[in-house]
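Record type: ASSEMBLY
Status: queued
Input:
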Amino acid sequence: MSSSLVRSAGEQVEVPTPGTADLARPPEGAAMNKKGKSGKAGYLFLTPWIIGCVCLTLGPIIASLYFSFTDYSLLASPHWVGLKNYSDMFHDKRYWASVIVTVKYVFIGVPIKLGIALLIAILLKDGMRHMSVYRAIYYVPSLLGGSVAIAILWRQIFGDPGIFQSFLALFGIESQGWLTSPATSLNTLIVLEAWQFGSPMLIFLAGLRQMPQDLYDSAAVDGAGPLRKFWNVTFPLLTPILFFNLVLQMIGSFQAFTPSFIISSGTGGPVDSTLFYTLYLYIQGFGNLQMGYASAMAWVLLVVVGAITGLLFFTAKYWVFYGDSR
Amino acid sequence: MITRRNFLAAAGLASLSAAGLTACSGGSAGGDAKGAANLEVIWWGADDRAAITNSILAMYGKKYPGNTAKGQFLPFGDYFNKLNTLAASNSLPDIIQLNLPNLAAYVKNGLLLDLGDVDLGDYAKASLETGKIDGKLYGINFGYQYLTVMYNTELVTKSGLAVPKDPADWNAWGDFGVELAKKLGNGVYGMSDNSAESNTWASWLTSRGKGLFSTDGKLAHDEGDAVAWYQYWSGLRDRGAIAPGAESQTYVSNGGAAVDPLTTGKSVISMSPIVQFQGYQKVNKVPLGLAPCPTGPSGRGEVNAFFGWGISSKTKNPQAAKDFLNLWFTDPGAFKELGLDRAIPASKKQLDTVSQGATGAIKTMLGFMDSYTISPASQPASPPSIGSKVQDSLTRAAEAVLAKKLSPEQAGAQYFSEIKAAAGE
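Status: finished
Output:
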């Protein structure tokens, strides 16, 4: 649900490539001069989007902020309860269980996913025969990833009895249901997440293929080997793209919903081991009719994701190398 | 080249959608034109139930020319999320299928019509009790629902053991499960793990003279009952009557005929409301047998929980909707279509119609019902704040015991503290 929204939003973002953005940007003075004329027409063309944004996005967002201070139950009209929903979260064991599951999912899943994406992108960087075919194949899981069908497939593969279990049994390995055991269920979902590395991979690939050749030539003249070239040339130039991928993937993973909803049949089980934050929010809102509490949870998520994103931006100046920095 | 700001907007918008998660959408309610009623009906269930229900909707159209009744159905897991959303957006269908945990919440929020004046023919009054809130009838129960013990007849024969004679208590059935596992071996266990099955839990409580809730909406059981419950199932697991943790996990987490070890041939006995017997027989290759539910210190744990039709208080066609219920519960044609799909009929005429030429699972069910007199107590409605929490808490505590994360004592305490908080006590 939410994860696919985010993912598609990420895919529509123009892929930034080193060395091209400065050329594409028009001189600021020219833009200012034309603003008066083109502004109205621009807004006119934007009207359908603005109407959609206000009615379908901003409206519900503001409504949810109001509901977060009420006891809204879906069935009855809301009553103001102040900060009760927010304070209740501190005493709700399941809430904290969902926070822990989500944090594990994000902080283990995203680095693995980005690591795989970068590795495959490096392998695909230099032209090879049927390159576009490989790229397409690696990208397919990302296209399917957010969908219900792939979550159902995952359940068939790693369920109990499941295809993976039968496969291991061929080699005499007895295993439990990978999704039905609380010890392994979240890890199986992390594998599902990491498997959908196609979208960050494409962005890495675009970045890798835009690397200025002269820097490599200079490095070669200085006697740098492949590893040294990667570490001293490729990686620093790639950090803006890594940063970009990291922020988008992290936000997407915090909002992951579909895999757990489908695979655990909407319960987050077994023993809350796959209870994603968003799933608990959904259970509280639509299952337990505590829409006020669910709205408060959504706002806490927004603030936390915003804070972590802000923190990433803050740390960026220490490790992200922009082409325009000195 | 990425500058520090040029994707801030995209990232910001992406995170904002978190706050939009709680947004919901609406539907449309049935309207009327020049006196013609176009009823909308909604229920949960599988395709078989949809075929049965749709043919009765068609009957309604024929009996009341000009009127129509249109149905929609969802799987149980999605049903109440959808229904609650429809209720929130003021677009409930005219006729809605409800169950006991949700009935009171709908009544308290003024969403249901008083059905006291619907003509129900010879429908037994005793079965109506469970659809009443504060003395008024808001839901018409499809009929009797009560727990039964189902067993694999071939495996029982193979074991050389005899099914416990009624009345048999919970321990007698447990001991039988232990014996079955010993005799059969080869990874076949005596019983399915029903420690997360809320109907079995309600029956267990009834047999102990307790219940889920009292008629005034208060908790009617205590922590000790819950601890004893988890101890019962843990004890059976320890004695080898039911499969150990990992093997029982799928059934405990999800329930249902398809994943019940009874169906997969891994257990001989399972417990389920009698109306699910047809569904079980459909997926089981061998003939299943039926036995009355176990007894306890206070007798048989028979309890009739509401599962039936309600009418939306916002309906534009209250009379047409009531006519539909009249047809459903009194028309011989409808009786024939219905069979035993949703309940054991509370109408003698309906039961007689279904009995004519009965075969297969229906014949087994009718034969079982003839063997003793049923008189299930009515299960009082859960308080409005409860919803699906009994099932949720029961399941999570049962899962934790299976995974050895909680002892039966801790599980009982966890379940009870959650239910107590949900009931506001």
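Annotation: Residues 54 and 60 of chain A are 9 Å apart (CA to CA).
Annotation: Chain A has one domain: 2-10+93-319.
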